[in-house]
Amino acid sequence: MEAEADGRLARPLSKEEQRAWAPLVQSMLHLLATLDDELKRGLDLSHLDYGILMLLRIDPRHRRRMTELATTFGVEPNVITYRVQRMEARGWVRRGRCAVDKRGVYAFLTEDGLALVERATPLHVAGVRRHFLDHVSPAQLAVLAEIFGPLHQRQIAGPAMTAADEEPGPTIEGHRDIVRTPVPADRTASDPSVRDNTPG
Q1: Domain boundaries, the chain
Q2: pLDDT of 82-125, one tens digit each?
Q3: Strand bridging mode 93-97 / 105-109
Q4: Which of 72, 133, 156, 165 could form a disulfide with 161 if both were Cys (CB 3.0 to 4.6 A apart)?
């Protein structure tokens, strides 16, 4: 059985498989590079930085574990550490350990970080529409959501959240300037970037 599975996995892609796979990879690389370039030119902000800030913004307590951020974006933890350190130096985020679970290192949003997300979101959404959504029909969009929603959930699936992760404040030990402003309901309904836990 294992030999059969290994043989199937090692088999070259068929023409039909290649016709779907190659454009997907190439177009996504182009799309993400374009969105990254627009954010950098407009606000000196990388696409990954924007994604981190948006996840912090839509969290009710404006915080996320560093390891959770790495899992969500499919990168090594040291990549998240580097990006958060750079944003911390610019006053957009802060880091701290959970007052309940000393093992957990969190990134949380500051007032300046929230203001930056508010400025960046219209630019980001305009780019997503211009470079992606304007070229996809509603029917195609539904198919993409059906395919990639479950796929991403399998990618980020991990151990169940502990009780310490759910424990309410004091949230971060030694920090009292946590932004706790909830996402307004009207913004959630109208802003495509805050409808899901994973920014585009």
Answers
A1: 43-155+169-194
A2: 999 999 999 999 999 877 767 789 999 999 999 999 999 999 99
A3: antiparallel
A4: 165
